[in-house]
Specification:
Two copies of one chain form a homodimer. With about 200 residues, chain A is α/β, with parallel strands linked by helices. Chain A has eight helices and seven strands, in the order H-H-H-E-E-H-E-H-E-H-E-H-E-H-E. The first copy, chain A, has helices at about 5-15, 25-35, 40-55, 70-75, 90-100, 125-135, 150-160, 185-195; strands spanning about 55, 65, 80-85, 105, 140, 165-170, 195-200. The first copy, chain A, has a five-stranded mixed β-sheet with strand order 4-3-5-6-7. In chain A, a hairpin with a 6-residue loop joins strand 1 (about 55) and strand 2 (about 65). In chain A, helix 1 packs across helix 2 (about 25-35) and helix 5 (about 90-100) crosses helix 8 (about 185-195). The radius of gyration of chain A is 20 Å and the shape is elongated.
Chain lengths: ~200, ~200
C-alpha cells in the first residue's frame, strides 16, 4: 500500500479478514471510518462488541438469541410438530423472510465437509436427536444448501433418522443447484418448503 | 429483518452506514463477527477506535498521518517545486502507487458540489494559498477526478490561481492504459482525440 500509516494499515488488515472484503473495499471502509465523527466510530465499535457479547445460541434450536431461548422457540403459535434443519443462523432468517414455514428450527452450525475436516461430530446432530426424544416433533425437514456438502449432509442425516421412524423430508429442488439458502428469493424458498418430498 | 435480535439488528444498522455495504452484505458481516473468536472481535473494535484516535491530518498537506506531518511532507527527497491537488486521502495512495509523481500533495477533502451544499469554503483551499505564499512551489497540478464536480473544482481552482502567476496544470484525460477503444465511452474518446500529442 506504499506509504501507509500503521493504525490505518492495522485497521485495513482487520477489515480484510471479514468475508467479501477485498483489499480495495477494506481500504475504502478504513478511510470512511477515519472520516466519520468520533461518536459514530465509537457506536460502531460498541455495536460490534455488544453483539459479540450478548448474542449466543438458543438452548433448544441453536439459532442466535439474546435470551436463553430464541423468539421462535418461545413462540407458542409455532407448529411444534415440525423441525426444519438448517446449516447456519442466517438460513433461519432467510426461511422466516419467505413466510413459508411455521414450525421450529434446528441449526447445525456447519455442514459435513471432509476436506475441511468437518465431520458429524462438529455439527449439532447429537442435540437434534436429543430434541427428537424429548419434544413432540413428527417431521424433520432438511433444509441444508443444495450444494455438494449440503446434499451429503442431508443424505447422511436422513440415514441417521431412518431408524427413528420419524417422517423426514428434504426441501424441494426449487432452490437452484449450487445456490446458497441465505441469498434465495422469498418465493423460491416458499415453493421449496411447499414442495418438500419425503425421503424416508 | 423479521425476528431479529436487538444487538444483531443494531450491529447490522451500524455496518449498513458504511459505504458499499447493502443490507445483505451487512448482515453477512454481522453474522461473521458474532461467529469470530472474542479475541478477534476485540482486535477489530480496537483497530477501529485506534485508527480513528491516532490518525489525523498532516499540518502541511492535509493527507492522513499518525504524526504532525505526513511521511511525504517529511521526505527530503520529494520535489518541493510541485504540489499535486487531490480530492481525498485515497487519491494520494493511488498517485503514490503509480510511482509517476515525486512532488508534494495537497488534499482538498472534498469537491465543489452545490447540490450537496459544498462550496469553496468547505474545501482546504485557503490552506493551499497559504502554502503557496510560504513554500517554494512553482507548479500546481490539479488531479481532481474527471467527473462533473472534479472538473468544476479544477476550473474554479485554476481561475483562483491565475492571478498568482504560478504554473497550473491538469492531469491528462484520455484512454486508460490497456483500455479498449471499442469499450471506451464517448466523452473519454472525445477527450483523448482533443488532447492528442504529436509523436512524429
Amino acid at each position: 500500500m506504499g506509504k501507509i500509516i500503521r493504525p490505518l494499515a492495522n485497521l485495513h488488515d482487520r477489515l480484510r479478514r471479514l468475508p467479501g472484503l477485498g483489499s480495495k473495499s477494506a481500504m475504502r471502509l478504513a478511510y470512511k471510518i477515519i472520516d466519520m465523527p468520533m461518536e459514530e466510530v465509537e457506536r460502531l465499535a460498541d455495536a460490534i462488541l455488544v453483539a459479540k457479547r450478548d448474542v449466543h445460541l438458543c438452548k433448544q434450536c441453536y439459532n442466535l438469541t439474546a435470551d436463553e431461548y430464541c423468539e421462535i422457540c418461545n413462540d407458542v403459535k409455532r407448529d411444534r410438530s415440525m423441525i426444519c434443519v438448517v446449516e447456519q443462523p442466517p438460513d433461519v432468517t432467510a426461511m422466516e423472510r419467505s413466510q413459508g414455514y411455521k414450525g421450529l428450527y434446528h441449526v447445525l452450525h456447519g455442514v459435513m465437509s471432509p476436506l475441511d475436516g468437518i465431520g458429524p461430530d462438529q455439527l449439532r446432530l447429537k442435540e437434534l436427536f436429543q430434541r427428537l426424544e424429548t419434544e413432540e416433533a413428527e417431521e424433520v425437514i432438511i433444509a441444508t444448501n443444495s450444494d455438494v456438502e449440503g446434499e451429503a449432509t442431508a443424505s447422511y442425516l436422513a440415514q441417521l433418522l431412518k431408524p427413528t421412524g420419524i417422517k423426514v423430508s428434504r426441501i424441494a429442488q426449487g432452490l437452484p443447484m449450487g445456490g446458497d439458502l441465505e441469498f434465495a428469493d422469498e418465493l423460491t424458498l416458499a415453493q421449496a418448503v411447499e414442495n418438500r418430498r419425503r425421503i424416508c
